[in-house]
Amino acid sequence: MPALTPDTIRTATETLSHLTDYLHDNPEPAEALALVEPLLDEYTGVPVQLADALRALARAVQDHPDTPRSAEAALLIMELRTAAWEQSDQHALHYVLDDLRRLYAKTPPPTVRCGRCR
Fold first, then answer.
1. For 4, which DSSP code?
2. CB 39 within 8 A of CB 15
3. Which DSSP state fits 116?
4. CB count, 10 Å around CB of 87?
């Protein structure tokens, strides 16, 4: 695996930005759900990965010998951990996708009426 750089992470966030722009153009719901599904996977989705990354960052900063042992540093590390828990709470968003799919499966397609028919 190649080394991570800020540019590789920026590329990932740019992809998310492109997805957001695409979704603003109102694609078909089935396509939109399929595109968002990997982001909300309950095991590997963005909420889970971001939470894990925030926890790992907090641990890396806390364990580094150059990190000051101060109340300010402890507070900042705690903020990272709190943010990680908040992200972890979003892991259940994949259920929303399931519910939306079921909603569309129950909804009959719109009826097209002829202008001359009554």
1. P
2. no
3. T
4. 19
> How high is the pLDDT of residue 110?
61
d(Cα 104, Cα 98) in Å, to the nearest integer?
10
> What is the rounded CA–CA span in Å between residue 56 and residue 106?
42
CA pair distance 49, 84, nearest whole angstrom: 10
Ramachandran class of 26: left when φ > 0, alpha when ψ lies in -120 to 50, beta otherwise = left
Question: Model's pTM, two decimal places?
Answer: 0.77
Q: Please compute the mean of the pLDDT values over residues 71-85 and round it to a whole number.
A: 96
Q: How many CB atoms lie within 10 A of CB 9?
A: 11
CA distance to 10, 32, 38, 43, 58, per residue, from 54 (Å): 17, 28, 20, 16, 6
Q: Please tell me which residue, 95 or 55, carries the higher pLDDT value.
A: 55
